[in-house]
Specification:
- The structure is a single chain.
- The chain has about 300 residues and is mainly α.
- About 75% of the residues lie in helices and about 0% in strands.
- It has 13 helices and no strands.
- α2 packs across α4, α6 packs across α8 and α10 packs antiparallel against α12.
Length: about 300
């Protein structure tokens, strides 16, 4: 029997002891997060806030002499790294909470949701909407093709948007947010690299932590597979088909392609501290000009 398509089978459950939002401000629990209008405001608001953070990061680059001399493409990449780092911290908090705390999401693995999870899912849609737009626009302007990022962000945007539309899979979605744990350390890696500190102890320590986050990503991915295994009967019988397909597509790609690849590249970078994004660009330019020059 194929998974059934159904929308909104579970009401929004709000238990104060299970909500992170109460620690931000108790009044946030009074908002009607089941309203499509409220969800839309959160998504659009997130997009605007992230966009403002991006331009603020661009100004940050110009405040320090080490970054002021960077070409515009590098400043854009750095600003995107800072934005991802901020979102990554958000994801670490949300992901850890829903992995280690039993909530209504665990009691109904398919349609369980609460106020905090609804906000987290809408924020994620807004973030990936910005991310995908920024990466595609950047590739068009600088004539590059970030195939891995575009694939990752496109699939993530589709998956989280469908989850919000069908009000389903908040449990796996919120637990899976912790996979963004690498982004703060990746941002620090890039900042140190561009500041010429790739020979410092701080660089080595941060790079080792960054590499370890990919090891931890693999642990989390195994945990998500196990959660799916434990709840397979319910997931297969009740989960909307589009959500079912996207969840296992993303989990398969992350487990067997993205995490191993990024972990391998960051391990390479520990022993060869270069910015391969622009190193590859120089190689591509050399080839297009009819010659191939090996970087020193």
């Amino acid at each position: 029997m194929a998974p059934n398509i159904s929308i909104g089978q579970q009401k929004l459950v709000i238990l104060e002891e299970e909500e992170i939002l109460q620690y931000v401000h108790p009044s946030l629990l009074k908002v009607d997060y089941a309203s499509r209008k409220v969800q839309g405001v959160i998504i659009i608001g997130t997009f605007i806030i992230v966009l403002a953070l991006f331009f603020g990061s661009m100004l940050f680059c110009n405040m320090f002499s080490a970054f002021r001399s960077l070409v515009s493409k590098q400043k854009v990449f750095m600003s995107l790294a800072i934005v991802r780092a901020v979102y990554g911290v958000f994801c670490i908090v949300i992901g850890c909470y829903f992995i280690f705390k039993t909530t209504s999401l665990d009691r109904d693995i398919v349609f369980g949701k609460n106020a905090t999870s609804t906000v987290a899912m809408c924020v994620t849609v807004g973030f990936f909407l910005f991310e995908l737009s920024a990466v595609v626009l950047s590739d068009l302007v600088y004539k590059t093709f970030s195939k891995m990022l575009i694939m990752h962000h496109s699939l993530a945007l589709i998956a989280f948007t469908l989850a919000v539309v069908y009000e389903s899979n908040y449990a796996i979605g919120c637990k899976g947010l912790i996979l963004e744990m690498s982004t703060p350390f990746s941002c620090i890696c890039y900042l140190l690299l561009k500041a010429g500190m790739e020979s410092s102890k701080l660089w080595t320590i941060n790079q080792c932590v960054l590499i370890h986050t990919f090891h931890l990503r693999s642990v989390v991915e195994c945990h998500l597979w196990y959660v799916g295994y434990q709840n397979w009967t319910e997931i297969y019988a009740r989960m909307p088909l589009p959500i079912f397909v996207m969840m296992y597509t993303n989990l398969t790609l992350a487990t067997f392609i993205m995490t191993p690849y990024w972990g391998y590249r960051k391990t390479q970078q520990l022993f060869n501290p270069v910015d391969w994004n622009f190193q590859e660009s120089r190689n591509t330019d050399s080839i297009s000009n009819g010659s191939v020059k090996k970087d020193d």
